[in-house]
Each structure stands twice: as C-alpha cells, then as structure tokens.
C-alpha cells in the first residue's frame, strides 16, 4: 500500500521487529514505518492492549501524515561470497557459530575444493538457480546449495537429495514463508526413500552394523 | 489503534479487512487501495 502511495504503518509487537524490517526491505520499502508495542497483545486483557496502543498512537499519527520516502528496487544476493576462515577445525567451528552458520552442530569448512568435489559433474552448472527461498528471496543456486551441503559435511552422493529437498521447500504448497517467519518453533522434517536413499548411503544399515 | 486515531479527528470511517490466515497472501489489495486514505496493518500474537 505504501508503494501505491497510500500512507501505511505496520503495527506489531517487538518480537516481530526483525521480520517486519526484513519483509519491508525485501519489498524495496526499508523506510516503511513500523510501530511496536511490547509483546504480546494476544491473550491479555483488552484494556491492557488499548493501553499499549495509546503509547504509540502519536508515533503512528506522525508516520501517517509525513511525506513517504520513494520506494527503491529490492536487491537479492545472486552469488556466493568467499571469506577468510580459520584453518583449525575447532576454531572454524567457533567462528561458524559466531557467524550463525551453525546452530551448534559440527560443521566443516566449505572450501573451494570441497565445494567443487560436492558439485562433481554439476560444477559447470554451478550458477543454475534451483529455487528462490522465502522470506528474503534467497537465490538457491547449485553452488549455494553445494556450499551449504559441504558445510554440513555432505558429499557429492548426497547432493541430488539435498537439491530435491530444496526444490520441495520452495514449492508454493509448502508455504516456506510461513515456516520461516513464524515465532512458533517448527522446522521441516525430511524423510528420504527410494533409490536416492541408497545412493546417498543407508544409515539404517550403518547403524545396525555398529 | 484505528479507534484511537479516529477519536482525534472528525469524519473518520474505519474499515477492516482480515486475511484467512497469517500465512496466506492478501487477495484484497486492490479493494483496499481503492478504499482508504491511510492504512494500518498488523501482525502479532
């Protein structure tokens, strides 16, 4: 609506600030006004909700009556970037956690050689876009997927399954945007079956053999 | 919020639209754009 010239303000609670900013930036409206009250507003006395609203009413009125900034086109990352990382695996793990590339599970350095190995014969098509991922329209190229697969310790035998999984995530029916942006604790579960399961390694048998 | 703002001005009409769910796209944008002078949109729980 703001892009159509209608003054608009996004109302929410402070738990949604990062989502509101990300969505506004994605749509080329980083200046979009966002007015927040302390979380939550659901499940509480309506009088308390009204009290929270009163604290930002002046801010909302100001935002609705000042000249808006012009929209700009949204930009999306289309290429992978190279970073200098520690050589030591323990140091790399700590660094990856600090960069928020790991949630604490072990990761491996996705070096150029490692990514090339994971890509294998697909290396010539590394720039092919497999999917566009919500909420920020991330460009999931073969190379980007291979980088993430290498980071997680996957090999070339796993890449077809990972690529299929990324395609499935991006299916509109799956509604990845809702999963990625909700404050509820949900995450995709991937169940692999069929010939590609065997090609990628049957972990049931590996566990049975232990 | 709309009621608070309306209480500070005269001649204000409040209209409300609700999506079928938070994760559903808004299918009524054209109707809203043709109907309002200013817009408040919200998402929270």
Fill in the keyword field for this structure.
heterodimer; A: 210 residues; mainly alpha; two-stranded antiparallel ribbon; 9 helices; B: 45 residues; alpha+beta; 22% helix
Short description:
The complex is a heterodimer of chains A (210) and B (45). Chain A is mostly helical and 210 residues long.
Shape of chain B: flat
Report the biggest beta sheet of chain B as strand number plus sense, adding barrel if it closes.
Answer: none
Strand content of chain A: 5-15%
Structural class of chain A: mainly alpha
> How many beta strands in the DSSP annotation of chain A?
4
Dominant shape of chain A: elongated
Query: What sequence of helices (H) and strands (E) makes up the elements of chain A?
Result: EHEHHHEEHHHHH
How much beta of chain B, percentage-wise?
A: 5-15%
Average pLDDT reading of chain B: 89
Radius of gyration of chain A (Å): 22 Å
Oligomer description: heterodimer
Biggest interface between chains: A-B, 32 and 19 residues
Q: Pairing-aware structural class of the strands and helices of chain B? A: alpha+beta
Task: Give the termini separation of chain A.
Answer: 60 Å
Instruction: Give a quick account of the main beta sheet of chain A: strands, pairing sense, barrel closure.
Output: 2 strands, parallel
Query: Can you write the helix and strand succession of chain B as a string?
Result: HHE
**Continuous helix count of chain B:** 2
What would your notes on this structure say?
The complex is a heterodimer of chains A (210) and B (45). In chain A, the strands form 2 sheets. In chain A, strands 1-2 form a two-stranded parallel sheet. Chain A starts with 7 loop residues before the first strand and ends with a helix. Chain A contains 9 helices and 4 strands, in the order βαβαααββααααα. The mean pLDDT of chain A is 87. In chain A, α1 (17-26) links the parallel β1 (8-13) and β2. Chain A has helices at 17-26, 46-65, 89-98, 112-119, 142-151, 159-170, 176-181, 195-199, 203-208, and strands spanning 8-13, 33-37, 129-133, 138-141. Chain B is of the alpha+beta class. Chain B has 2 helices and 1 strand, in the order ααβ. Chain B has helices at residues 2-6, 29-33, and one strand spanning 39-43. The two termini of chain B are 16 Å apart. Classes of the chains: A mainly alpha (210), B alpha+beta (45). Chain A binds chain B through residues 1-2, 4, 6-13, 15-16, 19-20, 39-42, 50, 53-54, 56-57, 60-61, 64, 175, 177-178, 182-183, and chain B through 1, 4-5, 8, 22-23, 29, 32-33, 36-45.
